[in-house]
Amino acid sequence: MHGTIGVAVVGCGAIARAIYLPILDELPYVTVSACVDADAGARARMAARCPDATIAQTADEIAGCDCAIMLTPVGPGIDAHYEPVLALMEAGVPTLCEKPLSADIERAEAMVAAADRANTLLMMSVNRRFAPVYRRAAAHFTDTAIDLCIAEKSGSGGIYREIVTNSLHVLDVMRWLCGEVAELRGWCATKGETDLRASVAMRFVDGATGSFVMSRDAGLWVERVTLHGGGRTAVVDAPHRVELIADGVREVWSPDQDRWQMSEHERWGFRAQLEHFIACVRNDEEPHATAADGLLSHQLAARIRAL
């Protein structure tokens, strides 16, 4: 596929306005060809912002677009990714879906199955794989294995099914860097559908070990991943810095060292991921992580919630 790519933005709320639409505005080979939202007010705002785009209420109205970005909400009583993604897969529209695919594992599995049946590209947002600090940490272990991975994703306030809807970020990073998890032991505390805290030990198929901890009663927002192996260490404090140690030499690196005032979209990997998705739609690249890969992170999260 060559020329300009027409993108449908499905779900025109805060994440669309703050992250995805500004990136799409900057890409010279992309145009927002459709905006979809169930809310009439949101549709009116998008009609004013994107006057050349088709404004629609449901995803089944935009089958002619080259691709779609699924940004509808997932929360208590709301699973607004599921039916639109099924409609887009049936219509053969390549889709990038914000995580999680669904807060319900059976629905997430059904979405991946629908993509397989339709032979249509479905990717889940795994933007940490594209974030500069995580990329730098991964490169630190290019020629040596990671033996231990320690991850924390903590903050304040309850989040619906937090391990699936939020901690999925670092669980996906753990799988990306260390492979699949063979064994889990640990503890997860929940209150209704709110995950409160978890402490989990893991053994990966290739022999590495790891741990994941989470608290929603923290006084500080934390996303930190520590990697050890082969005499090397990387400590990622996302998204601003990574500390790298090898052979007694210590380096502290920040993406802002290479570029003054990098945007948060770039620090968190959103822009690089979106560029990669568009390249996959154009058949210029093969996907780094399909929804089937993302589903394995969903399944890991479901295993932890069941402890």
Task: Summarize the structure in words.
The protein folds into two domains: 5-124, Rossmann fold; 128-262 and 291-305, Dihydrodipicolinate Reductase, domain 2, CATH 3.30.360.10. The chain contains ten helices and 16 strands. An eight-stranded mixed beta sheet has the order 10-11-12-9-13-14-15-16, covered by helices on one side. Strands 3-2-1-4-7-8 form a six-stranded parallel beta sheet, sandwiched between helices. Strands 5-6 form a two-stranded antiparallel sheet. The chain is globular and about 55 Å long. With 307 residues, it is α/β, with parallel strands linked by helices. 42% of the residues are buried. Helix 4 packs antiparallel against helix 10 and helix 7 (168-178) packs across helix 10 (291-305).
Write the layout of secondary structure elements.
Blueprint: E1 5-10, H1 14-26, E2 30-36, H2 40-49, E3 54-56, E4 67-70, E5 74-75, E6 78-79, H3 82-90, E7 95-97, H4 105-118, E8 122-124, H5 132-140, E9 148-156, H6 162-165, H7 168-178, E10 181-191, E11 194-204, E12 209-215, E13 217-229, E14 232-237, E15 241-246, E16 249-253, H8 264-267, H9 270-281, H10 291-305
Parallel strand pairs: 1-2, 1-4, 2-3, 4-7, 7-8, 9-12
Antiparallel strand pairs: 5-6, 9-13, 10-11, 11-12, 13-14, 14-15, 15-16
Helix pairs in contact: 3-4, 4-10, 7-10
Sheet/helix structural class? alpha/beta
Which segments are poorly predicted (pLDDT under 50) over 5 or more consecutive residues?
A: none
| Shape estimate | globular
N- to C-terminal separation?
46 Å
Helix coverage percent:
25-40%
